[in-house]
Each structure stands twice: as C-alpha cells, then as structure tokens.
Design a protein that fits this description.
By secondary structure, the chain is an alpha/beta fold. The chain is built from eight helices and eight strands, in the order E-H-H-E-H-E-H-E-H-E-H-E-E-E-H-H. Strands 1, 2, 3, 4, 5, 6, 7 and 8 form an eight-stranded mixed β-sheet that branches.
Length: 328
C-alpha cells in the first residue's frame, strides 16, 4: 500500500491492540472497499471502547499490486470519529476550532535513523539530504496544484545502526520496531523521527498519528522502505513521496479515500470523496457520485510517486490544527 497510518493514538499505531485490529479489519493495505468500511462505521472493533486511545496511531503504505499482509494504517469510520472528537476537544481547549494559518514557517527538526545490514540499506548522506530537500519541496508548495503548507524540515542528525535483526522484515508493532524506537528516538512531540529499513509485508511505510504521542511517546515517528527514498530501487515509488505521505499522517491527515464515498470522509472539505485507493496514475478516475474527480494527485492517495503533486488548503488547515493541538 502506499502509506498507512496506524490507529492507536499510536494511538495508529496503537499496540497492544494493533494486531487484533488488523486481524479484525481483514483488509489489504491498498484497497479496503468502501462497503467494508461503511458497514463498520456504526460499530466499534474489538479493540475499541475502553482501549480506544490505544487504537489510534498509525498508518501505512504498500506498492500497487501487493497483496501481502494487512493494512496497519486502516482507520474505520468509528475510529476516525473518535480521533476527530479528540482533536475538536483539544482545539476547543485552545479557544478555536480553526487555528489561524501563520505567515511564517514552522521548522520541524528531523532525525533520520538508518537501519542497515552491513552495506545493505546503508544509505548515503546524499540520499538522506535529498529526502529532506524533497520534503521541503512538497511541503513548500512545489508541484502542479500544490499549496505551501507553512512547514519546513531541518535535518537535526543522522545515525546508522548495523543490525540485521532490525533491518530485514521490519513490520508494524513488531518487537524489532519497538526495540529500535526505544533505543533510537530523539526529541519531543514536535520532532520527526524517520526510520529506514527493509520492510516486511510489502510495505512502503507507516506512521503514527499525532494524538498517539501522549500515550506512547517512544512509538512516535515514521518508518519507510529504504528503497523508497529519492533514487532508490522501488520502481514508481522512489522519488521520496512515501516520506511525504507518511509525514502527512504524522501531521494528522487521513487517506483521501477514508470513508469511501460517505461523508465526512477524510474530514477535509476540499478533497473530493474517493471510493477506494488509486494506484498508478488513473487520470479522470471518478468513483463517487458527488462532484469532483478522485484526488489521484494528492499526496495522501496511493498513486505512483510521479503522479503525486499536491496538498489542498483544507489539508493544510488540518495539519496546522493538529500541530497546535498535539505537537506545538
């Protein structure tokens, strides 16, 4: 799948309930049909209820055509409502339902943790620098139809860990992921920790959501396939947009196909509803009866990297709201 956001508040990713949630959802990372999501909307999963906070925190991405594993970033309608209610409560405490967009840039420090097995996965400093440049380009408004978000990224440090047990087959919620983050994570809630490795389950990456930080600070961050960074070997997914996508989850964005054709969808008014994830670059795709073709060029869909080029003003407002509520 392209990118996924866990649901624990790691809350995605949300362990210890994540495994049970994924098993209950039974959907592939790429395209859980809208009818499945709609059917689940009025109910809660086995991990909801008293343990709901542990359910919201992560999202993930998988390459087109992959059927391996489940979608660790899938968020049901009930879970999305709970996350939105929590955000609304946090914003109300700040005295506003919409945080004013700042005229200046908010700088996010980034620590990059390169996990490798000898020479395998040992990314060059130039590759890390290219990924930070790509983040600044995509969040800075470059690209057709794109809008500057007001966020910029500064590399705070890069470290290298030669550990085969972590590098090979890293998966969401695994003992390897937990040990890696416990040992390596740096900074506070406003610090982006980016981990690269050879991922299992055919995943391109996953991320925690911002509301998950308070319940599990050590889990906070983004994990991506090393080959997805600029110039990597992941065909169609090697321009750096996996990190852009997963960082969108880290800022609080859902997938554009969240909820399928049903409102409120991804809780952003200016992203047209989309019944399921888009793969490749299907120009003119229109899967919902409401006005507007599917947002296949949006960074929060599952399209090829070369097809992705934009964040909408509504998504930027949501990122700013989430930053103020959870990461500021």
């Amino acid at each position: 799948m392209r990118r996924t956001a866990r649901v624990r508040s790691r809350a995605p990713r949300l362990f210890p309930c994540a495994a049970a949630l994924v098993a209950a959802l039974g959907v592939s990372q790429f395209a859980a049909p809208a009818p499945q999501r709609a059917a689940a909307a009025p109910t809660t999963t086995a991990c909801d209820g008293s343990d709901a906070d542990a359910l919201f925190g992560a999202a993930a991405r998988r390459p087109a055509g992959s059927q391996a594993g489940k979608d660790p970033n899938a968020v049901t309608a009930a879970q999305a409502r709970a996350m939105q209610a929590d955000l609304d409560d946090r914003l109300a405490a700040l005295g506003s339902t919409h945080v004013p967009l700042s005229g200046g840039a908010t700088t996010v420090p980034v620590y990059v943790h390169v996990i490798h097995d000898g020479s395998a996965g040992r990314l060059a400093d130039s590759t890390v620098a290219a990924q930070i440049d790509h983040l600044n380009a995509t969040y800075g408004g470059e690209g057709e139809g794109n809008t500057p978000t007001g966020f910029r990224f500064a590399l705070a440090g890069t470290d290298y860990t030669d550990k085969a047990a972590w590098y090979t087959g890293m998966t969401p919620g695994s003992a390897a992921e937990k040990a890696m983050k416990k040992q390596l994570r740096k900074g506070d809630q406003g610090t982006l920790n980016l981990y690269t490795a050879h991922l299992g389950q055919s995943l391109l990456g996953w991320s925690t959501f911002p509301n998950a930080y308070r319940s599990d600070p050590a889990d906070d961050g983004v994990v991506v396939l090393d080959a997805s960074l600029p110039g990597g070997s992941a065909t169609h997914y090697n321009e750096g947009n996996t990190v852009t996508h997963e960082t969108g989850h880290w800022f609080g964005l859902f997938h554009t196909f969240q909820g399928g054709c049903l409102l409120p969808g991804d809780y952003v008014d200016d992203t047209p509803p989309e019944r399921s994830a888009a793969f490749g670059c299907p120009e003119g795709r229109d899967t919902c009866p409401t006005t507007g073709a599917d947002p296949i060029h949006d960074f929060m869909d599952y399209s090829y990297d070369e097809c992705m080029s934009e964040f909408t003003p509504g998504q930027i407002q949501r990122m700013v709201n989430s930053w103020s509520a959870y990461r500021s």
